[in-house]
Amino acid sequence: MEKDFEVPLKLRLMGQTTAMILPRLISLLDIKIAHYDRSADPARPEYNEHMVFSFWHEFIGVILPRWGHTPLSILASQHRDGEWVSQTALALGLRIVRGSSTRGGASAIRKLKKQCKETSLAITPDGPRGPRRKMAIGPVFMASRLGMPFVPLGIGVNDAWRLNTWDSFAIPKPMSRVRIIFGPKIDIPPKAKRDELESIRQSVEDLMNDLSDQAESWACSGQNMLGEQPFTRVRRRKVIFDSKPVRETFRPELKIIRSNEVA
User: Is residue 1 pLDDT above 60, yes or no?
Assistant: First the structure.
Protein backbone atom coordinates (compact mmCIF):
# COMPACT_ATOMS: atom_id res chain seq x y z
CA MET A 1 0.00 0.00 0.00
CA GLU A 2 1.00 3.56 -0.53
CA LYS A 3 2.01 5.58 2.47
CA ASP A 4 -0.42 7.83 4.28
CA PHE A 5 -0.05 11.54 3.73
CA GLU A 6 -1.21 14.53 5.68
CA VAL A 7 -4.33 15.95 4.09
CA PRO A 8 -3.79 19.59 3.09
CA LEU A 9 -6.07 22.17 4.69
CA LYS A 10 -7.37 23.12 1.24
CA LEU A 11 -8.68 19.60 0.63
CA ARG A 12 -10.28 19.40 4.06
CA LEU A 13 -12.06 22.70 3.47
CA MET A 14 -13.19 21.55 0.02
CA GLY A 15 -14.65 18.41 1.56
CA GLN A 16 -16.47 20.32 4.28
CA THR A 17 -17.86 22.80 1.78
CA THR A 18 -19.02 20.03 -0.57
CA ALA A 19 -20.70 18.24 2.37
CA MET A 20 -22.64 21.41 3.15
CA ILE A 21 -23.70 21.97 -0.46
CA LEU A 22 -24.60 18.42 -1.56
CA PRO A 23 -27.71 17.92 0.66
CA ARG A 24 -29.06 21.26 -0.54
CA LEU A 25 -28.49 20.35 -4.16
CA ILE A 26 -30.08 16.96 -3.61
CA SER A 27 -33.24 18.71 -2.38
CA LEU A 28 -33.61 20.21 -5.88
CA LEU A 29 -33.85 16.77 -7.48
CA ASP A 30 -36.69 14.28 -7.91
CA ILE A 31 -35.16 11.15 -6.36
CA LYS A 32 -36.88 7.80 -5.89
CA ILE A 33 -35.52 4.48 -4.65
CA ALA A 34 -36.52 0.85 -5.14
CA HIS A 35 -35.23 -2.18 -3.23
CA TYR A 36 -34.92 -5.88 -3.90
CA ASP A 37 -34.38 -6.21 -0.14
CA ARG A 38 -35.22 -3.26 2.09
CA SER A 39 -32.78 -4.41 4.78
CA ALA A 40 -29.95 -3.83 2.29
CA ASP A 41 -29.94 -0.06 2.79
CA PRO A 42 -28.09 1.72 5.64
CA ALA A 43 -30.81 4.38 5.81
CA ARG A 44 -33.63 1.88 6.40
CA PRO A 45 -34.73 0.68 9.87
CA GLU A 46 -34.50 -2.97 8.69
CA TYR A 47 -30.75 -2.67 8.11
CA ASN A 48 -28.86 -4.89 10.59
CA GLU A 49 -26.21 -6.81 8.66
CA HIS A 50 -22.64 -6.08 7.58
CA MET A 51 -22.54 -5.71 3.79
CA VAL A 52 -20.39 -4.47 0.93
CA PHE A 53 -22.29 -1.88 -1.11
CA SER A 54 -21.13 -1.26 -4.64
CA PHE A 55 -21.97 1.60 -7.03
CA TRP A 56 -20.25 3.18 -10.02
CA HIS A 57 -17.79 5.99 -9.33
CA GLU A 58 -19.63 8.56 -11.44
CA PHE A 59 -22.56 8.65 -8.99
CA ILE A 60 -20.69 9.33 -5.74
CA GLY A 61 -22.25 12.78 -5.41
CA VAL A 62 -25.76 11.32 -5.67
CA ILE A 63 -25.63 8.53 -3.10
CA LEU A 64 -23.33 9.86 -0.35
CA PRO A 65 -25.72 12.55 0.97
CA ARG A 66 -28.42 9.96 1.68
CA TRP A 67 -26.01 7.83 3.67
CA GLY A 68 -24.72 10.70 5.81
CA HIS A 69 -24.48 9.89 9.54
CA THR A 70 -25.18 6.19 9.08
CA PRO A 71 -22.91 3.28 10.16
CA LEU A 72 -21.08 3.03 6.87
CA SER A 73 -17.41 3.15 5.91
CA ILE A 74 -16.14 4.27 2.52
CA LEU A 75 -13.17 2.32 1.15
CA ALA A 76 -10.65 4.94 0.01
CA SER A 77 -7.36 4.35 -1.75
CA GLN A 78 -4.20 5.71 -0.16
CA HIS A 79 -3.12 8.00 -2.97
CA ARG A 80 -4.10 11.63 -3.39
CA ASP A 81 -6.49 11.10 -6.31
CA GLY A 82 -10.04 11.76 -5.17
CA GLU A 83 -9.05 12.83 -1.64
CA TRP A 84 -11.77 15.47 -1.72
CA VAL A 85 -14.31 12.62 -1.91
CA SER A 86 -12.88 11.11 1.28
CA GLN A 87 -12.98 14.48 3.02
CA THR A 88 -16.57 15.01 1.87
CA ALA A 89 -17.58 11.61 3.24
CA LEU A 90 -15.95 12.40 6.59
CA ALA A 91 -17.76 15.73 6.76
CA LEU A 92 -21.03 13.90 6.05
CA GLY A 93 -20.50 11.76 9.15
CA LEU A 94 -19.28 8.64 7.35
CA ARG A 95 -16.12 6.71 8.13
CA ILE A 96 -13.13 6.20 5.89
CA VAL A 97 -11.20 2.95 5.63
CA ARG A 98 -7.94 3.57 3.82
CA GLY A 99 -6.60 0.62 1.93
CA SER A 100 -7.02 -1.41 -1.20
CA SER A 101 -9.25 -4.25 -2.23
CA THR A 102 -6.39 -5.75 -4.24
CA ARG A 103 -3.21 -5.07 -2.25
CA GLY A 104 -1.96 -6.40 1.02
CA GLY A 105 -3.66 -9.79 0.89
CA ALA A 106 -4.60 -11.32 4.23
CA SER A 107 -3.18 -8.45 6.30
CA ALA A 108 -5.32 -5.91 4.44
CA ILE A 109 -8.43 -8.05 4.95
CA ARG A 110 -7.71 -8.35 8.68
CA LYS A 111 -7.34 -4.58 8.91
CA LEU A 112 -10.63 -4.02 7.09
CA LYS A 113 -12.43 -6.56 9.26
CA LYS A 114 -11.19 -4.88 12.44
CA GLN A 115 -12.11 -1.39 11.31
CA CYS A 116 -15.56 -2.40 10.08
CA LYS A 117 -16.89 -4.14 13.18
CA GLU A 118 -19.48 -1.40 13.60
CA THR A 119 -20.13 -0.55 9.97
CA SER A 120 -20.64 -1.88 6.49
CA LEU A 121 -18.45 -0.96 3.53
CA ALA A 122 -19.19 1.07 0.41
CA ILE A 123 -16.94 0.83 -2.60
CA THR A 124 -16.76 2.10 -6.17
CA PRO A 125 -15.49 -1.00 -7.99
CA ASP A 126 -14.38 0.93 -11.07
CA GLY A 127 -12.53 3.62 -9.08
CA PRO A 128 -10.41 5.48 -8.50
CA ARG A 129 -9.00 5.42 -12.03
CA GLY A 130 -11.23 3.25 -14.19
CA PRO A 131 -11.95 2.00 -16.71
CA ARG A 132 -15.51 3.25 -16.41
CA ARG A 133 -18.13 0.71 -15.31
CA LYS A 134 -15.62 -2.14 -15.31
CA MET A 135 -15.34 -4.03 -12.04
CA ALA A 136 -11.98 -5.18 -10.76
CA ILE A 137 -11.78 -8.55 -9.03
CA GLY A 138 -10.65 -6.95 -5.77
CA PRO A 139 -14.09 -5.97 -4.41
CA VAL A 140 -15.44 -9.49 -4.97
CA PHE A 141 -12.36 -11.01 -3.30
CA MET A 142 -12.79 -8.61 -0.39
CA ALA A 143 -16.48 -9.48 0.13
CA SER A 144 -15.58 -13.18 -0.01
CA ARG A 145 -12.85 -12.96 2.60
CA LEU A 146 -14.77 -10.57 4.86
CA GLY A 147 -17.80 -12.85 4.80
CA MET A 148 -20.15 -10.01 3.85
CA PRO A 149 -22.90 -10.18 1.21
CA PHE A 150 -22.32 -8.00 -1.84
CA VAL A 151 -25.08 -5.49 -2.67
CA PRO A 152 -24.90 -3.84 -6.12
CA LEU A 153 -26.65 -0.55 -6.82
CA GLY A 154 -27.91 0.85 -10.09
CA ILE A 155 -28.29 4.62 -10.44
CA GLY A 156 -29.79 6.52 -13.36
CA VAL A 157 -30.33 10.20 -14.16
CA ASN A 158 -32.51 11.57 -16.93
CA ASP A 159 -30.62 14.87 -17.30
CA ALA A 160 -27.11 15.57 -16.02
CA TRP A 161 -23.98 17.51 -16.75
CA ARG A 162 -21.10 15.12 -17.48
CA LEU A 163 -17.54 16.09 -16.63
CA ASN A 164 -14.68 15.33 -18.99
CA THR A 165 -13.22 12.72 -16.64
CA TRP A 166 -12.49 9.02 -17.01
CA ASP A 167 -15.83 8.16 -15.35
CA SER A 168 -17.94 10.90 -17.03
CA PHE A 169 -18.78 12.13 -13.52
CA ALA A 170 -22.50 12.94 -13.31
CA ILE A 171 -23.89 16.17 -11.89
CA PRO A 172 -27.70 15.99 -12.09
CA LYS A 173 -29.33 19.20 -13.31
CA PRO A 174 -31.86 20.93 -11.02
CA MET A 175 -35.30 19.29 -11.12
CA SER A 176 -33.96 16.25 -12.96
CA ARG A 177 -35.07 12.73 -12.06
CA VAL A 178 -32.66 10.44 -10.24
CA ARG A 179 -33.58 6.79 -9.69
CA ILE A 180 -31.69 4.33 -7.47
CA ILE A 181 -32.18 0.56 -7.37
CA PHE A 182 -30.68 -1.44 -4.49
CA GLY A 183 -30.00 -4.89 -5.89
CA PRO A 184 -30.24 -8.23 -4.10
CA LYS A 185 -27.75 -9.47 -1.50
CA ILE A 186 -25.21 -11.73 -3.17
CA ASP A 187 -23.49 -14.27 -0.93
CA ILE A 188 -19.97 -15.01 -2.16
CA PRO A 189 -18.30 -18.26 -1.00
CA PRO A 190 -15.74 -17.43 1.73
CA LYS A 191 -12.96 -19.54 0.22
CA ALA A 192 -13.66 -19.00 -3.46
CA LYS A 193 -10.70 -19.56 -5.76
CA ARG A 194 -9.61 -17.06 -8.39
CA ASP A 195 -11.46 -18.75 -11.27
CA GLU A 196 -14.70 -18.77 -9.27
CA LEU A 197 -14.15 -15.17 -8.16
CA GLU A 198 -13.62 -14.10 -11.78
CA SER A 199 -16.87 -15.74 -12.80
CA ILE A 200 -18.68 -13.99 -9.94
CA ARG A 201 -16.98 -10.70 -10.81
CA GLN A 202 -18.26 -10.84 -14.37
CA SER A 203 -21.78 -11.73 -13.22
CA VAL A 204 -21.85 -8.89 -10.67
CA GLU A 205 -20.49 -6.40 -13.21
CA ASP A 206 -23.22 -7.43 -15.66
CA LEU A 207 -25.84 -7.10 -12.91
CA MET A 208 -24.61 -3.63 -11.91
CA ASN A 209 -24.82 -2.47 -15.52
CA ASP A 210 -28.28 -4.05 -15.89
CA LEU A 211 -29.46 -2.28 -12.73
CA SER A 212 -27.98 0.98 -14.00
CA ASP A 213 -29.80 0.58 -17.33
CA GLN A 214 -33.06 -0.16 -15.48
CA ALA A 215 -32.58 2.88 -13.26
CA GLU A 216 -31.86 5.11 -16.26
CA SER A 217 -34.91 3.82 -18.14
CA TRP A 218 -37.00 4.44 -15.03
CA ALA A 219 -35.63 7.99 -14.72
CA CYS A 220 -36.14 8.81 -18.40
CA SER A 221 -39.68 7.37 -18.46
CA GLY A 222 -41.00 9.84 -15.90
CA GLN A 223 -43.20 7.05 -14.56
CA ASN A 224 -43.42 5.20 -11.28
CA MET A 225 -41.93 1.88 -10.27
CA LEU A 226 -43.84 -0.63 -8.22
CA GLY A 227 -42.60 -0.44 -4.62
CA GLU A 228 -40.71 2.85 -5.03
CA GLN A 229 -39.74 4.87 -1.97
CA PRO A 230 -38.97 8.58 -1.52
CA PHE A 231 -35.40 9.74 -1.02
CA THR A 232 -34.94 10.31 2.72
CA ARG A 233 -31.95 11.08 4.91
CA VAL A 234 -32.35 8.95 8.02
CA ARG A 235 -29.53 9.36 10.55
CA ARG A 236 -28.60 6.10 12.25
CA ARG A 237 -25.29 6.52 14.01
CA LYS A 238 -25.59 3.23 15.92
CA VAL A 239 -26.82 -0.13 14.65
CA ILE A 240 -26.76 -3.42 16.50
CA PHE A 241 -25.57 -5.85 13.85
CA ASP A 242 -27.21 -9.26 14.12
CA SER A 243 -24.80 -12.19 14.01
CA LYS A 244 -27.56 -14.23 12.36
CA PRO A 245 -29.67 -11.64 10.55
CA VAL A 246 -33.10 -12.59 9.30
CA ARG A 247 -33.22 -11.89 5.58
CA GLU A 248 -36.33 -10.41 4.02
CA THR A 249 -38.46 -12.93 2.18
CA PHE A 250 -40.42 -10.18 0.42
CA ARG A 251 -39.11 -9.57 -3.09
CA PRO A 252 -41.05 -6.82 -4.85
CA GLU A 253 -41.59 -7.06 -8.57
CA LEU A 254 -39.54 -4.12 -9.77
CA LYS A 255 -41.28 -2.86 -12.88
CA ILE A 256 -42.16 0.54 -14.25
CA ILE A 257 -45.88 1.33 -14.16
CA ARG A 258 -47.95 4.20 -15.52
CA SER A 259 -47.63 7.40 -13.54
CA ASN A 260 -51.36 7.46 -12.80
CA GLU A 261 -51.26 4.03 -11.14
CA VAL A 262 -50.75 3.62 -7.41
CA ALA A 263 -47.14 2.60 -6.73
Answer: no
